[in-house]
Structures are given as C-alpha cells and as structure tokens.
Amino acid sequence: MTELIWEGKYDEAGRKVAPLRVALPFQTVETVNESAQERQRMLDLWGSGRDTEWRNRLIWGDKKYVLPSLLEEFAGKVDLIYIDPPFLTGADFSFVVELNGDEFVKEPSIIEQKAYRDTWGRGLESYLQWFYESVVVLKDLLSETGSIYVHFDWHIGHYAKILMDEVFGTDRFLNDIIWQRTASHNDPRRYGIIHDILLFYSKTRDYTWNDPKAAHSPEYMNSFFIYAESPGGEVVKLKTGDEAPVGWRRFRLGNFASPHPRPNLTYEYKGYKPPKNGWKVSIERMVELDSEGRLWFPPSKDGRIQTKSYWDEVEDGKAAPDIWIGMMALQAQSPEKVEYETQKPEAVLERVIRASSNEGDLVLDCFVGSGTTAVVAEKLGRRWIAGDLGRFAIHTTRKRLLEIPDVRPFVVQNLGKYERQSGRPRSSASRWRRSRPPTAG
Q: Which residue range forms the structural domain that includes residue 179?
C-alpha cells in the first residue's frame, strides 16, 4: 500500500513513532444549566458510591493532550466522530468578529500560537504528522460499530485520504462525500472552487447506518407525479404547478413491462394484452397489486397497464447520494449564523449524526469551532464530547448550547496546570484589536 513518509514518522530502528499518550486529569471549571436539586442529587449519588448521571462535556485544550486523556474512560466507547480540522496552510487562528456593531480581530492566544507552530512549523510534513497522530488516537476511541467523518477542503484532502487508509484500512473507506458549500463563482485562471469533501470511514464492517434521505425537489414532483386520485378512485391529470385537490393523492406511472423476454410472464390480464417481453410479475402478484389499487388501467384495451407510485410514500426523499447539495454555507442573514469564520450549517451535521448514530449514542468532535456538532447532537438526543483549543470557540459553543430550549446540563472542563506542566506554555487570554474605527453614535 502507498504510504506517506515524513521526518519523525519512524525512529532510528525503523519503528513507527507512537503518538504522545500522556493521560492527564480533567478539571471541571463549570457545570452549566444544572439546578440546585440536580446538583444535590448528583452529590448524593457520588457520596453513596453509585454512578452519577452522564454529563455532556465541553473541553478547552489541545487535542494532543485531550484525546489521550479521554482514552482511559472512553476507549472503544465513542459511536461517532466528526472532525473539521484546520487545513489552510498559513492560517494563524486570527479572524474578524462583530461585537455591538464594531468589528474586532480576534488574535491568537499563546496556546493557539503554540498549536499553530506544532501543526505548520515544518510545513506540510508537520501537518501530516499532526493529523496522523490525531487519527491513530481517534480510532482507539471509536466503538466497534463506530465511524468517523473527516471534513476537508481541496488543500489537504488527497493527503488525508492516504493517511486514513493507513490507519483504518482501505477496506473501511466508505465514501468520499462532496459537499457543495457555495454557488458557482469565478476563481481567476482556474475552475470555480465550490465544494468541500468529507472522508467517511468505519472501524469495522458492523457499523451503525440509518439510511439518510435527500429531499426531492418541487421540480421533480411537478415533472413526474402528474396525476391525482380521489378517495373514490377518480383520476385527473394535473397541469404543471397545479396542486392536487385536498384529500387526493398525487402519483406517477411506472413501466410494468419486462426489459427481457419472459415467456412465462406473457399472459393477458382483464383483457389487456401483455407487452412484447411479458409483464414484470407473475399473475399472482398482478392480482395482489390490483387488489391494493397499485395498477392503472388505460381507457382502451389497446393500452398498457402501468403501476402507480404515490408521492406521499416517497416525499421523505430518495437515498442520499455522495454529492450533497441544497445545504449551502451560511449567509449573513441566516438565523444560525454566529461570528465564527469556519461555521458549518446544522443541516450537514444533522445528516452525519442521523445517518451514523442512534439516540443516546456518544458523538465526539475535538475541533468543535463554532459548536455545530455539539448543538446538533444535543438537539438529536445524542451524548456528546466537544473540545477545542480556542477560548473563543468554547465561549461560542457554550453560548449556542444555552440558546437551545431545555438543553441538558453539561460541564466545561480543561486540563489546567497539568497540561502546562506537560510542555504547554502558560496560556493567556485571547487578545483583541479593533479592525476599524467605531461608528458614530
């Protein structure tokens, strides 16, 4: 198998260098949205030696230390991982946010500057090592029925695919998903770049899968489901754009002829002669479909019997393909929009989480950014662990979670002084500078 090699991947004896696995204790900084009664009940459970109830976890820290620290408790227990790691060469963790009508540049803290040097200090080589070490530990966290989605743009995705194949195996690669994030536009002297990719892998062959559906377009309905049927069986043909009368069911006609010669299925039914190659079904099945009202009989016996497919049975959508459209990147006017540059739409995460986890399953995102993974997991009744090394990311995620009605209590944690003692410089508060003068008034 093709392998990517970089300085430091192997030691002098030719052995792969294992990722850092220093397990540090988490410190709970805050328990959010927990009532006094709930807090007392949790203390009583703990005091009596019984297991306390699950609390979702929002963790501030570098994944280099956070992921190994999760292994003791969660190795083999995470059902779904989604990560959207930084992938823009030259990114410096700075971005513009708007506060009370003024724009500010959020500058990197010391912890972010150190992480940037670790990630891009030697260019692509250090990034590949950083990503590889992350994926190795993430695989150990996955359950036997778990899967992982890795979100990239065009810069790094082709390298990441090779590393994912190395860690998970080429046989566990399930999809290269194309997400159209923006409408067509011009990029100077090249094709317009309008998509991201998601690499989808499972840990084993026995992975969780709930068939996702992609909504049909109104054009699809108007083009094909052009008949309507009353409760009494009356049928009318609709004009383009017409709504079916209230209580009537839209349907389309389907070809009922066999594509290949079927002498054993060449029979006459109710005076209608068979197609040249015969029907698709036996006489017994033909009678069943007729009794279920699934057949359409033309006025003339010279016509062809066809099947009826009802819109209300397919309007939930078709099987989702590996090209995702209709879930564009958030615009300024979107109600989801927060001031976070790399924010992804909830629709993207909803498809991922619904397809690859069940209610109560554990979802992990160690690059949570604006918090979309945690928000969608919360809304869909999943347990979640979300982490990020950016203080602003943790603040944004916490704020978004508290805007969810009846959000379950969760804890905010970090590794505190233990992380600093393991080689991380003492962090400072994020610095801010105004990017333009304040507006008058």
A: 76-112+119-126+142-154+171-208+322-339
